[in-house]
Design brief:
The complex is a heterodimer of chains A (about 210) and B (about 220). Chain A is an all-alpha fold. Chain A has ten helices and no strands. Classes of the chains: A mainly alpha (about 210), B mainly alpha (about 220).
């Protein structure tokens, strides 16, 4: 008679683990291909890059849209993890520089996936929802970083200020500075830093 | 019928003055058909952007056969290019800068209203242009040209204020205004934030006014 397994040692389902790892590798292959070429990769290309068969892809994702959604969730989670809010209580200049640096890095890393997401969102309500959530996350971050300045504004000025900051620091705005205008990373950051400082109202005096 | 017609001749050709100009009816009809096909394409894009209309849909809307389309355009990419050129020409004609010698508030308001209307009108075409440009150097060139025209317009309308800034700050201000007044920035105000035309204009006016330095004394 087999000995009962100890309740303290959870059973590791090796097959499930392998399947999750395969899923992860397929998602990473999709993201790598998107970074190399803005066009949507085919199932054959993804399978080849991941080192699996096309059948393996469709065993784990019902269709390419499901894979796109999973890759988007992975990309957005990764972007959030790599871009925590820093210097929230710093001086105006410190907060602007910190937010610009974080946003610039997110844009550099995320532009390829973002473009695929935007170009595909009309085919999928799930992708549309991800685009909306990503924008809301950006706005929430702006509200956090510029809370002192925004607190001095009444509506609709506060809303308009957030709209302007969001438009200015949009991922495509970054991409245009880098790709179309050929600005180096530091100069593109300087454009944003300068413009945000001009846009924001004066910082209120700190309470004693 | 000979191939050469009055419209084919270069402007400085020495033709006998007394001879009445020959009108090539077939050529005229063909040009009109082309124009109607382009208009049908643009109307469909406005309704279904960013989805690209098919040849069958364009033909049906224009009231011609699919064959008629491909007799005038070698492929749909050529039709897209012709429609883009038409859109750029139309936009330039209808969105000419106005109130240029006016005071700051008037120039700002006029620029924002023109740009806002342009965005409302041309956003669907702009989206189709961008989503189909990856494989076409010609479409990419049109995007660059449009962006360049937008930058030049900003430099022209806000010349008095921009002229007070050193080069680096001037360039940063122009790029910031360009980012702020991008097509997709307008679209987000209207679609994502649900702003009316006037509210969206007010948001841009306020932001541009903050970005610009003071207007120098004596300038309009």
């Amino acid at each position: 008679m087999p000995a009962p397994s100890s309740p303290k040692t959870p059973r590791i389902d090796g097959r499930r683990l392998r399947s999750e790892r395969t899923k992860q590798l397929i998602i990473e292959a999709f993201l790598a291909l998107v970074r190399e070429d803005p066009k949507l990769p085919t199932a054959v290309q993804i399978a080849e890059r991941a080192g699996y068969s096309v059948r393996s892809i469709f065993e784990r994702f019902p269709d390419l849209n499901a894979l796109r959604v999973a890759a988007t969730d992975y990309g957005l989670a990764q972007a959030a993890a790599l871009a925590p809010a820093r210097n929230v209580d710093g001086s105006r200049q410190t907060r602007i520089e910190s937010q610009v640096e974080t946003r610039a890095q997110t844009c550099e890393r995320g532009i390829a996936l973002w473009r695929v997401l935007l170009n595909s969102q009309d085919e999928s309500d799930e992708l549309k929802l991800r685009v909306r959530r990503a924008r809301e996350t950006t706005i929430t971050r702006l509200e956090l970083m510029y809370k002192p300045e925004l607190s001095t504004l009444a509506e609709p000025e506060r809303r308009d200020m957030l709209i302007a900051l969001e438009a200015l620091t949009d991922i495509e705005s970054w991409a245009r500075m880098r790709e179309l205008h050929g600005l180096p990373y530091d100069e593109a950051r300087a454009v944003w830093t300068y413009a945000i400082d001009r846009l924001l109202p004066p910082t209120p005096a700190a309470k004693p | 019928m000979t191939a050469s017609t009055v419209t084919d001749l270069p402007p400085d050709s020495a033709s006998p003055p007394a001879k009445p100009e020959r009108i090539d009816g077939r050529h005229l009809r063909s040009e009109r058909t082309k124009r109607l096909i382009i208009e049908a394409y643009m109307a469909l894009v406005r309704e279904s952007s960013p989805r690209v209309p098919t040849a069958a849909e364009i033909a049906e809307r224009a009231g011609y056969s699919v064959r008629s389309i491909f007799e005038r355009f070698p492929d749909l990419q050529a039709l897209r290019l012709a429609a883009t050129d038409q859109a750029i020409a139309d936009a330039r004609a209808t969105n000419a800068p106005r109130d240029l010698p006016a005071d700051r508030a008037t120039r700002l308001r006029a620029q924002v209203e023109i740009r806002g209307r342009g965005c409302d009108q041309w956003l669907p075409m702009w989206r189709v242009l961008n989503s189909n440009s990856a494989d076409s150097a010609e479409l990419q060139e049109r995007i660059r040209m449009t962006r360049s025209l937008i930058l030049r317009r900003i430099e022209l309308v806000f010349k008095p204020e921009l002229s007070t800034l050193p080069d680096a700050e001037r360039s940063r201000t122009v790029l910031a205004i360009e980012a702020l007044t991008d097509f997709e920035s307008w679209a987000r105000m209207r679609e994502f934030f649900g702003l009316s035309f006037d509210e969206a204009c007010a948001a841009w006016v306020r932001a541009i006014d903050s970005l610009l330095p003071p207007t120098p004394a004596g300038a309009s």
